[in-house]
Structure to design on (356 residues):
C-alpha cells in the first residue's frame, strides 16, 4: 500500500528533556510562591525524529511510505498525495482538540487512517470529559471536579490527597511531583498556577492509593487483543517523591543513561484482579469508541478496585527498549517486536477500512 505517516516532531534544539529557567515556557507566579521546578514540557507530547524514523522504517518493510508533517500545509499535501491509508501519530498543533486535526482533515478528504476518529481523540485528550462519559457508564474513576478559578472550588468536597492536572495534556505535561496535593492552600495556588501556565481548567481528582497499571490494546470489535498488563513500580522512585508517574519520574529520574526498573510486564496479578483489569480496560476502549489501538491507564482504589485514570488513543511508542515506553513493552511481552507491533496496527486498521 501507499502509506503516509503523519507526525509532529520535537524541535531538535529544544529537547523537551531537562530543566529550564521558568520564564521561558511555563510562567510561575512568584506571589503564589509555587515551589515547583518548572520544566520545558512544552513539546513533551511530540515525537523525536528517532521515533518517527523507526515508525517509517517499520512500515517501509512492507509498504511505500511518505512522511507528512502535521503542520499548516498538511491538508494540501494529503490532498495531492491521496495515500491508500495514513498511519497517524500526529499530536496536532493548537487547542484542546489538536489530536483531532489530522483525522478531521482525512475524514473530509475521505482518506482512511489508523487510530481513532476526531471525536474520540478530542474526548480522550480532555480528561474531565472522558471521566464524565465513563461515569455515565458506571465505569470506576476517581471522584473529581474541574476548576478554572478559585470560585470553582466553592463547595469542594473531595478528600485529600488529590491530584491536580491540566484537563488536556499528555506525557505528564503539567503533572509534577507537586501536583500531589494534601491541603486546600496548596490546591488554590495550583489551580491559579495551572490556569496561568496552561490556559486551561484543572482536573482535580481524589488520589487512588493502590497499584498502577497500564493496558495496551490492539484491534476492533470482537477481534480486540489486550496485551500483557504493565505495572508501574513506584518503589523505584526516590522516597521523597510522590507515588505518581509524574513528569519528573517519566523524563528526569528515569533516563536512558540511568534507567529505572519502573515497569513489570506482565504484571504479577492473581486471576481475579487480572480479569477485572482486562475487563474495565476493554469496556472503556469500546465505550470511548477507540479504534485500532490505545493505552489505558488504571489504578486501584483503597478497596483494591481498578479505576480508570485516562485513555491514550495515540499511545507513546519509543522504539529503543532501553527507553521505558509502555506500549512497545507490552507488545514485546506479547511476542511482537517494534516492527510487528506497528504493522499489526496498520493491518487491523486496513481490515477495518476494508482495504484488505
Ligand atoms: N487520581 C489519581 N490517583 C492516583 N494517581 C494518579 C491519579 N491521576 C493521575 N495519577 C498519577 O499521575 C500519573 C500521570 O497522570 P495521567 O496519566 O493523567 O497523565 P498523562 O500525562 O496524560 O500520562 P501519559 O504519559 O500516560 O499520557 C499517572 O500515571 C498516575 O501515576
Ligand atoms: Mg497517563
Amino acid at each position: 500500500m501507499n502509506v503516509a505517516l503523519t507526525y509532529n516532531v520535537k524541535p531538535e534544539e529544544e529537547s523537551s528533556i531537562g530543566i529550564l529557567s521558568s520564564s521561558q515556557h511555563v510562567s510561575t507566579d512568584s506571589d503564589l510562591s509555587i515551589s515547583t521546578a518548572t520544566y520545558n514540557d512544552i513539546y513533551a507530547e511530540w515525537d523525536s525524529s528517532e521515533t518517527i524514523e523507526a515508525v517509517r522504517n517499520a512500515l517501509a518493510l512492507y509498504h511505500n511510505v511518505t512522511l507528512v508533517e502535521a503542520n499548516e500545509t498538511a491538508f494540501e499535501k494529503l490532498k495531492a498525495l491521496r495515500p491508500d491509508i495514513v498511519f497517524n501519530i500526529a499530536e496536532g498543533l493548537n487547542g484542546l482538540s489538536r489530536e483531532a486535526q489530522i483525522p478531521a482533515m482525512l475524514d473530509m478528504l475521505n482518506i482512511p487512517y489508523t487510530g481513532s476518529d476526531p471525536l474520540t481523540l478530542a474526548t480522550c485528550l480532555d480528561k474531565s470529559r472522558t471521566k464524565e462519559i465513563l461515569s455515565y457508564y458506571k465505569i470506576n474513576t476517581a471522584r473529581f471536579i474541574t476548576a478554572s478559578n478559585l470560585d470553582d472550588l466553592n463547595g469542594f468536597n473531595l478528600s485529600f490527597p488529590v491530584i491536580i492536572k491540566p484537563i488536556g495534556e499528555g506525557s505528564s505535561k503539567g503533572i509534577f511531583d507537586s501536583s500531589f496535593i494534601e491541603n486546600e492552600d496548596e490546591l488554590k495556588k495550583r489551580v491559579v498556577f495551572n490556569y496561568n501556565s496552561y490556559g486551561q481548567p484543572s482536573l482535580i481528582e481524589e488520589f487512588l492509593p493502590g497499584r498502577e497499571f497500564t493496558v495496551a490494546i490492539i484491534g476492533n470489535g470482537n477481534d480486540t487483543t489486550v496485551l500483557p498488563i504493565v505495572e508501574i513500580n513506584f518503589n523505584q522512585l526516590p522516597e521523597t517523591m510522590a507515588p505518581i508517574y509524574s513528569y519528573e519520574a517519566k523524563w528526569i529520574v528515569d533516563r536512558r543513561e540511568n534507567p529505572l526498573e519502573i515497569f513489570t510486564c506482565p504484571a504479577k496479578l492473581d486471576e481475579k484482579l487480572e480479569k477485572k483489569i482486562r475487563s474495565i480496560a476493554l469496556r472503556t476502549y469500546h465505550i470511548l469508541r477507540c479504534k485500532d489501538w490505545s493505552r489505558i491507564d488504571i489504578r486501584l482504589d483503597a478497596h483494591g478496585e481498578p479505576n480508570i485514570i485516562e485513555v491514550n488513543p495515540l499511545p507513546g511508542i519509543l522504539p529503543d527498549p532501553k527507553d521505558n515506553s509502555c506500549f512497545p513493552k507490552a507488545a514485546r511481552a506479547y511476542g511482537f517486536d517494534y516492527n510487528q507491533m506497528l504493522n499489526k496496527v496498520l493491518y487491523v486498521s486496513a481490515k477495518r477500512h476494508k482495504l484488505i
